[in-house]
Amino acid sequence: MYISLPVLLLLVIALLSAVIALLLLTRKRRHRRKGLFKQLSLLLKMLDQGAHVARKHGQERSPHWGSVAKEHLRREPACVVCGYKGRKRQVHHIKPFHLHPDLELEPHNLITLCSARGKEHHLLLGHLGAWDSYNEHIRADAKHFYRKTAAQIKADLHWKKKMLARP
Ligand SMILES: [Zn+2]
Ligand SMILES: [Zn+2]
């Protein structure tokens, strides 16, 4: 079979550009996958800081936690501090799971708080600003800090005092 030189050149160029395009595509996809994985693990961490702290203490969440948390949200659907009902509401353990694993599924030990931007009621009031700390008086404090923003909470003397003495 005879192939003329221009045709052969064209074929070689086409093959080369196909290989380069393929290489670029796979590299881009690998980057995207890495970014997606990072985002996903960050999201999971945000969603369940309690499980993260518990794991640090060598404890795992009960397989029933998901349904108990859902049931709690049916009873108490909004952040008790601000009434927020969006996707950033979270079910918090008043007595922390890593110290009281027996109270993990106890309804009275659960309270709904939010991690909505500019409010951060879960972190600031449920954990006094540090995920491995906690606030056993969160029910009373939810009333004291009712509808306050993160900035207002951080400026509040009562909160500052509590934060300095946090467990
Ligand atoms: Zn919590
Ligand atoms: Zn809130």
Overview features:
2 domains, two-stranded antiparallel ribbon, elongated, 6% strand, binds zinc ion, 167 residues, 7 helices, mainly alpha
Largest beta-sheet details: 2 strands, antiparallel
Percent of sequence in beta strands: 5-15%
Number of discrete helical segments = 7
Helical fraction equals: 40-55%
Sketch the topology as an H/E string, one letter per element: HHHEEHHHH
| Rg from Cα | 26 Å
For the largest sheet, list the strands in their spatial order: 1-2
* Overall body shape: elongated
Total domain modules: 2
* C-alpha end-to-end distance: 84 Å
Q: Report the bound ligands by name, code or SMILES.
A: zinc ion
- The SS-based structural class is mainly alpha
The low-pLDDT segments are none
Number of E strands = 2
Mean pLDDT: 86
Organism: Reticulibacter mediterranei
Protein name: HNH domain-containing protein
Pfam family, one: HNH
Keywords: Membrane, Transmembrane, Transmembrane helix
